[in-house]
């Protein structure tokens, strides 16, 4: 059954890519006043013959350094300024979207592929669509329009709850791995933010989980096992202690990843990641002490090895690569952004998507061998 689901998901991706490749990539035109990271600014979004008012602001801390190609949060409005839910580029109908440019990613594909791969494992995650973006008359290159990570993209009922782990710790407290400390405060409780619901009672599921004597009774162990394997297979170095969501469906918690650009062999600075590094957190370290969770990891790896093989994952990259190449978007991207210089390291990287896909394949091959060796015996990373 799992193989059939994965096959259908991949076929849908390939058919979508083929359909878009018949013509030019969708072009989005965004006009707005000078932007910042706090207050959304009024603007207008045009896609073909469709045009709508929006509010827009920059998003992402490190991507604030991406000169000429930052990321954006969009909120669609009607002419009266009320929220407007519309399906853009075949995505679900909504009023909130993210525009992701991925300047530090020499493939421009890590984030959308990572989300698609998590969905292929049978778990919910936001979907993405490729486009090209103009800000006023300024060409911004290849972007991905991505659904917002919210209750709907997390597959939650209205009675559920959604939390985002914002950092490894705040004020020395990591709620994700520690016992409950104090009472919830507003929309953020130490290093965790409440996304849904918008009321004080929304903290109750998380508080109950933190206070539970055995947290596995209030979580989906298989989903967390899949997350551990997923993060370590693709080397998502920024997604164990932050950049993940805790999803409560009314009975159990399960994880959902976000911001997967620091993965598939690159750190957030674009520097190569160590091929033999293991990624964990205090929460997962505690789970790894349990014999039942170790057995579950070996069981899940055996079930997911085909889905997470380098050949299978590269099909996702190749489908997007072919779409962008055949539409001419890669050539325009290369002309506009031939390289990326990281502000923290000062290192310059040349945009070469074909070479980057070869790099990703080599990295995944090494990671797959690492996980095979670990799960052929007792887990001792």
The share of residues in extended strands comes to 15-25%
Can you count the helices? Answer: 9
Query: Kindly state the mean pLDDT as a whole number?
Result: 90
Spatial sequence of strands, sheet with the most strands: 1-2-3-4-7-9-8
Oligomer: single chain
CA gyration radius, whole angstroms: 21 Å
Structural overview:
- With 381 residues, this protein is an alpha+beta fold.
- It has a domain at 26-147.
- Helices cover 32% and strands 22% of the residues.
- It has nine helices and 16 strands.
- Strands 1-2-3-4-7-9-8 form a seven-stranded mixed barrel.
- Strand 1 and strand 2 form a beta hairpin.
- Helix 7 (310-326) runs antiparallel to helix 9 (353-375).
- The longest helix is centred in the last third of the chain and has 23 residues, at 353-375.
- The protein is globular.
Give the tags.
381 residues, alpha+beta, seven-stranded mixed beta barrel, five-stranded antiparallel β-sheet, 9 helices, 32% helix, globular
Question: In short, what is this structure?
Answer:
The chain is of the alpha+beta class and 381 residues long. 32% of the residues lie in helices and 22% in strands.
Please describe the topology of this protein.
Elements (H helix, E strand, L loop, with lengths): L1 H20 L5 E6 L8 E7 L2 E10 L11 E6 L9 E2 L5 E2 L1 E5 L9 H11 L7 E8 L2 E10 L13 E5 L22 E2 L2 E5 L7 H8 L9 H14 L9 E5 L4 E5 L24 H7 L2 H14 L5 H17 L2 H8 L2 E3 L6 E3 L2 H23 L6
Parallel strand pairs: 1-8
Antiparallel strand pairs: 1-2, 2-3, 3-4, 4-7, 5-6, 7-9, 8-9, 10-12, 10-13, 11-12, 13-14, 15-16
Helix pairs in contact: 1-7, 4-6, 4-9, 7-9
């Amino acid at each position: 059954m799992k193989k059939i689901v994965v096959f259908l998901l991949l076929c849908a991706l390939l058919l979508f890519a083929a359909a878009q490749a018949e013509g030019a990539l969708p072009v989005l035109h965004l006009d707005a006043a000078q932007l910042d990271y706090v207050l959304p600014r009024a603007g207008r979004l045009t896609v073909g013959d469709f045009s709508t008012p929006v509010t827009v602001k920059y998003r992402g801390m490190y991507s604030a350094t991406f000169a000429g190609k930052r990321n954006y949060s969009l909120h669609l409005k009607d002419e009266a300024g009320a929220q407007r839910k519309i399906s853009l580029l075949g995505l679900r109908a909504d009023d909130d979207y993210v525009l992701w440019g991925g300047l530090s990613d020499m493939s421009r594909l890590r984030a959308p592929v990572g989300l698609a791969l998590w969905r292929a494992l049978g778990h919910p995650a936001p979907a993405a669509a490729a486009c090209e973006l103009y800000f006023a008359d300024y060409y911004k290159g290849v972007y991905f329009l991505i659904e917002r990570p919210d209750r709907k993209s997390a597959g939650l009922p209205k009675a559920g709850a959604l939390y985002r782990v914002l950092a490894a710790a705040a004020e020395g407290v990591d709620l994700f791995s520690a016992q409950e400390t104090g009472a919830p405060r507003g929309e953020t409780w130490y290093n965790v933010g409440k996304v849904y619901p918008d009321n004080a009672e929304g903290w109750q599921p998380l508080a109950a989980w933190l206070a539970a004597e055995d947290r596995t009774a209030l979580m989906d162990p298989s989903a967390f096992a899949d997350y551990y394997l997923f993060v370590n297979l693709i080397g998502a170095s920024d997604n164990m202690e932050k950049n993940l969501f805790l999803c409560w469906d009314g009975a159990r918690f399960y994880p959902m990843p976000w911001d997967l650009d620091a993965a598939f062999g690159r750190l957030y600075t674009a520097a190569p990641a160590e091929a033999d590094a293991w990624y964990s957190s205090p929460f997962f370290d505690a789970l790894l002490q349990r014999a039942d969770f170790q057995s579950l990891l070996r069981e899940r790896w055996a079930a997911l090895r085909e889905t997470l093989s380098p050949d299978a994952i590269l099909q996702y990259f190749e489908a997007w690569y072919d779409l962008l190449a055949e539409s001419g978007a890669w050539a325009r991207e290369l002309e506009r952004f031939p390289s990326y210089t990281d502000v923290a390291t000062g290192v310059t990287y040349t945009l070469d998507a074909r070479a980057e896909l070869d790099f990703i394949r080599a990295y995944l091959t090494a990671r797959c061998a690492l996980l095979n060796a670990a799960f052929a015996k007792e887990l001792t990373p």
